[in-house]
Amino acid sequence: MSGGWNPSFGWDHSRASAPLQMSAPNGAYLGLFGVQPPFPMQGPSFAIPQNGFIHPLPVFPGQAPRFPNPRPAIDPEYPATYMSNSTGGIGCEPGYNLFHPPEYTKVHIIKSRTAPWQNPPGMALSFGAFHIPTSVALSDILKGFGANNGNPKKNRITEVTQGHNGRWYKGITISGDDRDQVSKTLKQMGWDRSRTGRAGEKPVVWLWITKD
Q1: Domain of 123?
Q2: What's the CA gap between 158 and 209, in Å, rounded?
Q3: Is residue 86 a part of any domain in this protein?
Q4: Exposed e or buried b for every residue in 58-84, given b needs 16+ CB within 10 A?
Q5: What CATH number is attached to the domain comprising 176?
Q6: Is residue 85 part of a domain?
Q7: For the chain, what percent of residues have pLDDT higher than 90?
Q8: Whole-angstrom Cα distance, residue 46 to residue 36?
Q9: φ, ψ for residue 158 (rounded to 5)?
Q10: Number of separate domains in the chain
Q11: Which ranges of the chain would DSSP assign to H, the alpha helix?
């Protein structure tokens, strides 16, 4: 297109040099994506499969397989948030699905070394927010949130209520040695799906769990 518009390279000019061509993609150049770098630059890299020899995943020198993934870190304070399967892994095994119960309640677990009702008014407290099935027993709540003291009497669940003045008020306390109480479910305690915390509805459940 002499003197015209080239849709690829813009305006044409007389006696202009030919436009440079792009290099072939995935060329075998050092530092580019496409091939395993040669010695002594061997190391983990991405490579395009070539006759099934080079893996599409990061590989190591000598085509050695990559290292296995480490075990996931489990928070000892919240062991119930991780599902351990029969293989020793975390989560559902391949091909399996997780069955969810029909009813949950909202529970906030306060993380504090000091009893919430003993803290100064307005003091900020750390907590974890959870959806918990209402069919779960209090004994499972103790285990699931790390209350595993060898003396069951020291494993306690205390319900607390948040006041409008920035204070916390102590409610019922249940210890692990009270078999009748710890066998109750959340729903039997009144901690059911109605505890939504939304405007005009019941507040969420606040619990303080201790083991010493």
Answers
A1: 104-210
A2: 6
A3: no
A4: ebeeeeeeeeeeeeeeeeeeeeeeeee
A5: 3.10.20
A6: no
A7: 50
A8: 7
A9: -125, 125
A10: 1
A11: 138-144, 179-182
- What tens digit of pLDDT does each residue of 176-200 get? 999 999 999 999 999 999 999 999 9
Report field, pTM of the whole predicted structure over 0.85: no
Task: Give the integer Cα–Cα distance in Å for 9 and 6.
Answer: 5
For residue 90, list its beta bridge partners: 84
Cα–Cα distance, 206 to 157 (Å, whole number): 10
Residue 134 lies in a domain: yes
- pLDDT higher for 182 or 53? 182
Q: Per the domain annotation, does 144 fall within a domain? A: yes
CA distance 65 to 58: 9
pLDDT at 87: 82
Q: Residue 40, preceding bond cis, omega within 30 degrees?
A: yes
Spatial distance between the Cα atoms of 108 and 207, rounded to a whole number of angstroms: 6
> What b-and-e string marks burial along 90-112, b requiring 16 or more CB atoms within 10 Å of the CB?
eeeeeeeeeeeeeebbbbbbbeb
- Which residues in 51-199 belong to E strands, given as ranges? 104-111, 126-133, 156-162, 168-175
- CB of 97 within 8 A of CB of 89? no
Angstrom distance (rounded) from CA 168 to CA 121? 8
- What is the CB neighbour count within 10 angstroms for residue 181? 17
Q: What is the pLDDT of residue 42?
A: 58
